[in-house]
Amino acid sequence: MTSRNLGRFFSDQAKRTPERVALIDLAVDGRSVDYATLEARTERLAAALQQIGLRPGDRIALQIGNRTEYLEAFFGTMRSGAIPVLINPRLSDEVRRFIAEDSGAVALIVDAAERPGVSPWMNVFGGDRRIALGAGVEGWQDYEALLAAAPAAAEPVEPEPGAIAFQPYTAGSTGRPKGVLLTHEGMLWSIAQNQRYWPARPEERALVAVPMVHKNAMRGIVKPMLNVGGSFVLQQDFEPRRFLQALAEYRCTFVSGVPAIFILALQQENLLDSLDFSALERIYVGSAMVSDALLAELDRRWPHTKVVEAYGLTEGGGPIRSPVDGSPMKRGSCGVAAPETGVRLVGADGKDDARQGELWVRSPAVLRGYHNRPDLDAERLVDGWLRTGDIFRRDDDGHLFFVGRVDDMFSCGGENIYPREVESVLLQHPAVRDAVVVPIPHAVKTYVPAAMVLLKTGHQTSEDELRRFALSIGPAFAHPRKIAIVGELPLNSAGKPDRGAVRRHFDAPSA
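^ that's the sequence the OP posted. Answer follows.
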């Protein structure tokens, strides 16, 4: 019988093709890890956690970057019956401490490169419940020694229906991080649904260059590849030249990432011209606003590669996907409602709207709830439906187009403005590569748009010219009153535009 434990979802595949390469880890000298090795080490990690007394339902905080051990710890923790709590190493000490304490984690596995013991929040864990990867760290259990001393097999743990598999944290666009409770059965359903309607092939190879702590990498690449015996190349962090070189050298057939990585990669024009991307079949870009200009540039650079604007969310999986009948995706659309998934657009009046509204979704992949947040459960979960907070427009053919966030919309002199609408106008200027729009206070109109703009390499323009351009093709009320041309846009830990940082820029006295 196939296990109901998400941590074991690739065990059968490892038995069928033990010698196949599962991943190539560029964080450790490009080591190749076959399925047999990944399976054996994941199983041994599960046994080690049981051996030190971790019980089913215990939370274990994982702070590990993009390396093989992240996968061992992530899936091995679930095999042991415990629940991994995912902590992004890029977050501040204050936020990481909050996650550790809010989750009630009783153990921590951390990469030694993250300097265990230096960050005070790590000291909330004690004794044998602190485990470090890498060189020996005084007062911490050594990861490799722990595995070596553990039995080769863990005691099997089969979760009950509705049991929590893992607990990522998402900050959304505002507010403190929120623990998301995702179930074993929901995640296994998502893996099966993905293979049923958008099947991956064993001969495929993908590139992971975004943090595995986020859905973009795990749902879009890692799980589909491990499910069918495919492989992926794992980069420790994103750097545009290394990203492009890996994509070409390892003959990757697809890649998934946030818009920022493709914007930066496309600036490497000389390198792009020198590399062979003939194996590249698909590019998935999402997790943040994707401009028409970026999609057009990707099409121009890789004319024989299918470029797909993807949509997904931590709390609800991938409710919008490419049509299963093979019909083409419309430019600017994230796709149509996925099979076996409930999708509604709900207007501000709380009634269904066929044309535009907040996206509500329902499927087994929807979170069971928010950890320790009954207030959010009441606000975001309604009769099994998840209120995503994302506004979409739907056309006559059922294609869905992202408009903006409910909490990003602001009123300018009585006119409702979504930042994406203003960004889309600016991105039509031939010199603009990317733009982020935020509201800033105004004495008469309450709020007006302000824009931070990144120019294309070798292009020049001025704030006045961009303002005149926006007035010439967009509504007057929505033109940006202030524009800052910068050499780099601020990004958050997920690689998305950091709108808070942009607002702070315009709030500063010198802005």
